[in-house]
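User: Sequence in, structure out. Go.
Assistant: Echoing your sequence, followed by the structure tokens.
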Amino acid sequence: MTFLHPPKDNNEACTERTSDGSCVATNGDDKFLKCLFLNPHDTSNIPLIPVYSQSNASYSTLFRSSARNRRYLSPNNNSRKPKFLILPSHESHVQAAVICCKKHGLDLKVRSGGHDVEGLSYTSSDIDPFILVDLINYRNVAVNVEDRTAWVQAGATIGELYYRVGEKSSTLGFPAGFCPTVAVGGHFSGGGLADQIIDAEIANVEGKILSRKTMGKDLFWAIRGGGGASFGVVLSWKVKLVPVPHIVTAAMVERTLEQGATDLVYKWQFIADRLPGGTYIGLNCTVVNSNATRERRTVRVIFSILFLGNVDELLRLMEENFHELGLQQNDCTEMSWLESNIYFYYTVRSPLELLLDRDPMAKIYTKAKSDHVMVPRPKEGLEGLWSMLFANDKTVLKWTPYGEIPFPHRIGNIYNILYQVDWVDCSQNDWNGGEVMAYRKAKVWGTKYFKSNFERLVLVKTEVDPCNFFRSIQSIPPSHHCSQLTEEE
């Protein structure tokens, strides 16, 4: 790995410099920089901490590199961008950022992969300055085949995790979704996909690094689905890998309204979350041109199927559970589990190295929101959804079935619908305003999202971060207000 260094400057008035020539003066922002470069004190075996200010030539490129939503990339909104970028390559860099931000009264935000639709991890609507810790260079994956585990640093993408596991074993995998560019930092801590996480390392509000044993069971519980950014900076995760067969079967079957898509989606609601283990069927609904006539638009539903077994077994299972889809042998392709993650993202069999590409898609303007569905929607309701799609044909609906595993939204819900709308141009950026949520305000949305877990998360937050240092407009608040002076005050 190539380690970045603090940027050199042209300030002739600089009164103090680091060993590589970077300025460490004693006024304004430079007090914060001096604090960073003095933490840790022993730097003999630790690379210099990489810091970039808005005036640095590399700042804009680095800031944009992991941000995919163009709504938050306007060059004219420096007040809503970080004062400094820090790109850690060592855990001590994160410790220093936490200690020095707290000491000098600066807000801290953490970005792992950039799949942050609302930009909360790298922008701010507050006037107060903030620092961004971008974990793009903190992404090592260490796989242990013998005990079927892997330590994954928070900046690694799930594609990188899949690829590194596949390098070591063709019969081990990890269940974390079909989008390889999502980083594990936010995906594991906020997405509720933490069933196989067995340990973690987190930098707390004091800059101390805690493991599962030292952080305690309540904090370990909270960061696995409660949003790790509310409680500290999660540095790495230890995951339990799961066995997969040498061969899996994948298929993507398209059906339009003229081909009975409404009836098929209706039936899917009753069986998708109840299929035998090792079987997944998700839906993707969009508006396309009709094959019947070029002048007519229709809804196309793609049924994405992954089965941990061979084609013959899948065909038998589908005949028993979902024969209406009419799955045929020529719809199916046998491949390795690792190859299936490429297949579903790129829709064709492509080189496995594409899993290592963190940013293969062009940046777009996008907005997304999800609903959890408790009971099957009637056909009339589905037809209403299709009407809404026709009204805005840039919208995509993605349907994901839930299984019977612990996560508040899986209990009592049968599937999730993600509504996503993308566009390619915008005259003005849609910046979300807001304030840091107090407990009463946060409870309104918190109990809707986390259900009965919200109050428990608040208790954990109050215990580990009572003065709400780690915060955003969607973070878990402590139960009471805390007055705290910085050391500068």
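User: And one key feature?
Assistant: The first strand starts at residue 51 and ends at 53.
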